[in-house]
Write a structure and sequence with these properties.
- Helix content is about 45%, strand content about 15%.
- By secondary structure, the protein is α/β, with parallel strands linked by helices.
- A hairpin with a 7-residue loop joins strand 7 and strand 8.
- Helix 11 (about 265-275) crosses helix 13.
């Protein structure tokens, strides 16, 4: 029914938001959502597009990441790094750790079933095949959309950082996703649908890692994560269209380069650079960084946003600007050419 996470003053001091999206966490979220048929039809095109491309190996990986219920925690550990590095870490998971996960991860009265092939996880050849399947699954579900995932993550994180600045960690916990998580100090309560059990997690001074996820449809609790437990929650809960369009199957790129060409001026380049150096900055702060009037900074930001080089979200009455992956790529490409 509910998962309660108990905080002390020390836990509040050590609670933070992840610096970047974590590929295996996002992969597990996307795999669950792919199979969750209870969700809105607006995801149907993404599902059809993805399911049509799944190899046998990718489908094997899906067997271990059902739409709800138990999944081996080491397949989606909240760790930063490239997909290739993280999947190699999964491949190298010690057999003893796998056995421990299989014997202790599930409560004895869990209503969820375990995939029939679970007993083979301690076989290195089978684990290798599963990791190959994870790689194939990533290439279908996430690789084509990773820049958009990064953009959505940065946008959500900028709002969370603003919440911390305005009201501290308690405001972050109460507003990060009020539709799915309730802050009842000193406890964070997360409903657990399809499960009649109640759970209590005492952080014991470790704090909590919060991770916005683009494709996640409900919070996920990583209670055995190291060095601190983590909660993944749906990013941009108040802007569902922004979140879901990140996973719209890609159309052929257009040839209209006019918006990007409009960027090639000193002032607008300075605005883009300032936003890249200060993600989540307000229009007023952007004006201060660039020496422009607020109205001028707002106009330049609007053009950059139209060109897809920044994203803008709102916190209360404040517009917050962050660079998109396209904007960062453009700045990096320009810097490389100048250095060369």
């Amino acid at each position: 029914m509910v998962f309660r996470i108990h905080f002390t003053a020390e836990d509040l001091a050590r609670t933070r938001v992840a610096d970047a999206p974590m590929p295996l966490v996002e992969l597990k979220a996307a795999a669950r959502t792919l199979q969750d048929r209870s969700q809105p039809a607006r995801l149907s095109s993404w599902r059809r597009h993805s399911l049509a491309q799944l190899s046998a190996g990718a489908r094997l990986a899906l067997d271990f990441i059902p739409s709800a219920g138990w999944s081996p925690t080491f397949l989606g550990a909240p760790k930063a790094g490239s997909p290739e590095e993280l999947i190699e870490q999964v491949r190298a998971t010690p057999t003893g750790q796998i056995r421990t996960a299989l014997t202790t991860i599930l409560p004895q009265n869990s209503p969820f079933t375990v995939p029939p092939l679970t007993r083979h996880l301690t076989d290195s050849a089978f684990l290798g095949d599963l990791c190959d399947g994870l790689s194939a699954l990533y290439e279908v579900l996430l690789a084509p959309y990773w820049p958009e995932i990064v953009d959505a993550f940065i946008t959500d994180r900028s709002v969370r950082m603003r919440q911390v600045l305005h009201g501290g960690v308690e405001q972050l916990l109460s507003q990060a996703n009020p539709q799915s998580m309730r802050w009842n100090a000193p406890v964070l309560e997360i409903p657990t649908p399809r499960d009649d059990n109640e759970y209590d997690l005492h952080l014991e001074g470790r704090g909590l890692l919060l991770m916005p996820s683009v494709m996640l449809l409900r919070p996920a609790i990583h209670y055995d994560a190291e060095p601190q437990p983590a909660v993944t929650y749906p990013a941009s809960y108040d802007q569902p269209l922004r979140r879901l369009t990140a996973f719209t199957p890609k159309a052929a790129p257009t040839r209209d380069t006019a918006p990007v060409a409009a960027l090639l001026g000193h002032t607008r380049a300075a605005v883009l650079t300032a936003i890249a150096e200060h993600p989540g900055c307000s229009t007023k702060e952007l004006a201060a960084f660039t020496g422009l009037a607020s109205s001028s900074a707002s106009e330049h930001a609007a053009i950059l946003r139209k060109a897809g080089l920044i994203t803008t979200t709102r916190h209360r009455n404040t517009a917050l600007h962050s660079p998109s992956q396209l904007g960062l790529n453009l700045l990096n490409h320009t810097s490389d050419r100048l250095l060369g």
